[in-house]
Amino acid sequence: MMESVLSEDLYRNPHRLSHCGKTISFNCKRAPGTNDNEGSELIFCSLSFEREGNTFLKAADGAAVISRKRLAHVDIVKCKSVTDAQKRATAPCVLVIKKSEKRSSFQYSLLTLSSSNRLEPCVEFKLPYQMKGAVYILQGPTVLWRHEGGVLYTSPQAEGVRQVPIHFSHCVVGELPLHKGQVFVLGLQKLPEESTSQTLGYFVEDGQVFDGSVILPHLYISITQCILVVAADRVDGVLKCDVVAATSNRLLVYFENGVVKDVCQLPFEQPENIQVVNTGRYGSLFAVSFCEGHVCTIWKETFQIAALWSSVTSIHVDDFLGCGTDQMLLVFKDRIIALEEFLITDLCGISFSHGQDTDAPKTSPPPSENYLLTLKALESRLQSGLTVLQELQREVTVKESVLRQSVKALTDVVSEREPVLTQHEQEGLIALWDSDDESKNEALDDKIHDIPAVSSKPRIDKLWHRTTEGRMVVGVILTTDRSAPVTNVSLSILTDAGQCSRPAVIQTQSQVFWLPAACSSPSSSSSSSFSASTFPEPPAKKSKQHNAISTNDLNACRVAVTAVTKLTPLLNSGRVKCHVMLHYIQTPDAFSFMSNQRPVVLHCGQVALDIQNNLHTELLKTPQLIADEVREDFLSLLAVLDHWVFHIDSPEYSLGDINGWIQKRVGCKKIEVSPQYLLLNSSGPSALMLLNWHQITPFQGELHVHSSQLQMFQFLDSLLAYLPESCSIQPLKGAGGKGASKMFALALEKELVSLREYASLLLCEEDEEKLKEKCFGYKETPDAGSVEGLQKCRAMCQRDLERSNMKLSPLVDVGQYRRLIQSMSKIQLNGDLAALLDIQFSPLMCCSGFHG
């Protein structure tokens, strides 16, 4: 019997899996050598897909010796790519069995393929029996199987073979997609004193027993063939999860928290595995594989069948094209080295096949909700743009008509003809001088459309203060005019003079935040400390369809300025009232130079020192409330917390829903006054943290953290456990804007100096002395009285003219010009990058998302 086995082909029972966009096949082979030394080894071959050739090419291969005994029989039990708990990344795993000569003992080895393409042993164990039935390789990696009614498992953490202490009559195995994923066994346990049974779940890692009905109802346990946990979360210690289960009566059932939500009739019997395919904006698919080589796909959104295939050797889900979304690889015929017949598709436009017909019966992908919303937004924007364009065209038509009438009237006057003018109503205009009746009717409209001029000085809208942990925060909200912008804005705090001759100045640290402009209202205008002059609008010719727009809406700009100071100097001075002074520099327009501008000081008011006025009281109670108190708490919190910015880059895997992961943390709530910020309140004011995640690409993003240094390190530690192993987190310098502004200034200075030097190099190609000798050969002034002297004077005049032309339009070498232009372009790109960083990390932009 053994001799017949050894006389077979060198390769036996190939197995295949997908990992990082590649397919990896494992096989057993007899090791080369003499008959005495002949043994068995495990070989692998990694293939990557090439679009141009529409084929799979070998990326790597290797082998590992499993047994050196001649009569030992080695075979592959199962292979799968799972999460390695120690490396925090997915790794290909293969389970190998080595049978003894007498088949009395069975040695099992679980090997992992490292990133350096080496097979490394992970778990080894011996059993007195051979595994029969379904064998699972799960995260950990964990090997789980059933034997004689019991469930057994082993892993690197288990340190040996262990058995689940609960005896299940029927059981289902799965894993939760949590931050710290857990492998569970779900089954029915008979009650000792009753004829009924109960649904129990058992977590393999910690041995915790839970109510299994939160995953699957009691009636579905005995008929479920395979399950897939789509989403899971713990809310107040209670497990919430969405599950897809394939049953023995040809049904695919969608459960939410143990309740049936949708059902789809499957076209084949005996389902074996369920995989999810994320196709991007078109939604997701469930790929169900069956016995005898059948495959079926179902749309997650509509829960309807999308496509069917038969004679499939294996199906794999991965990003084989490297486009950021998943595709399905259906293998119809393969060998250990290459794939002979295969199909790569996502049923949404991507299709690559070899030796197969790509026309599969399929339904069109359901429209994504985000896709429809994007179309509606673009359609609305296009309609709005078309309306503006039509209004501009009407205005141009009116102006052209006025110009024609003016030219005709001027021509008539010059020709001494009587000018004939059309009525202004025909041109859609309003006359400069109307009749008495019309002027009375228009008087009211003119009063309504009178626009109060915005004061050039900032208007103080509100003054507040908060105290927290030995510091006081003073804030001012002011309104400025965009036509006369203010710069270098800061706050200073002065104590009462008392018996002293002058008040004391308290050292502060200021920050500035932009706020959306508030709508003009009587209350807001009356609260201004400056009187606003009113200038009536002249009744000039204008289109009747023109709508007057308030200058408050166009030019008003609201700014919040905060200042942080220590409480100790205030308490030691015994002063209970402090004066708040606003310092700024105002320029007439955005292009004015600031060198001659003097700083202006404006008294904002007084604040009474109140130690009981704690920070973020309303913010902690109701962060979802949109109110002035919550906005002030939030601004004060930004002022006192330290700020870090981190750039996260994942070159191999997409980052996933990091914002959703942050929101699922305990105590994390969204701040409605600034929705892009999340408040994390774990225990008390000292543990407060503000988080802002900005997704740049699916593989890159920026994380803003406002907290203490210890809290920041703890959060980054938990985030690293969630992110892929290949991720890199780099802190960005100058997050507060000072470093970025300095980089921008240096880049501009370098650009100006380089431009001056390059221009000098182009214009001064020839030496000045050579140029003189070339253009001015005569040094003495010739005598113009003779014919020869006159000719010499003419020659000098011609050379002067040539010299002048050379200065005005000098000749430049083309090669040197191209090299200088390339160098200048690189310098300008660096300047543009510095300007972009200055804009992104400026403190004026960090609160632009406030709600009014």
Automatic annotation (TrEMBL):
GO cellular component, one term: Fanconi anaemia nuclear complex
Classification via InterPro entries: FANCB
Domain of life according to the entry: Eukaryota
Region (Disordered): 522-547
Biased composition (Low complexity): 522-535
PANTHER family: FANCONI ANEMIA GROUP B PROTEIN
Protein name: Fanconi anemia group B protein isoform X1
Lineage, opening ranks: Eukaryota, Metazoa, Chordata, Craniata, Vertebrata
Gene assigned in the entry: fancb
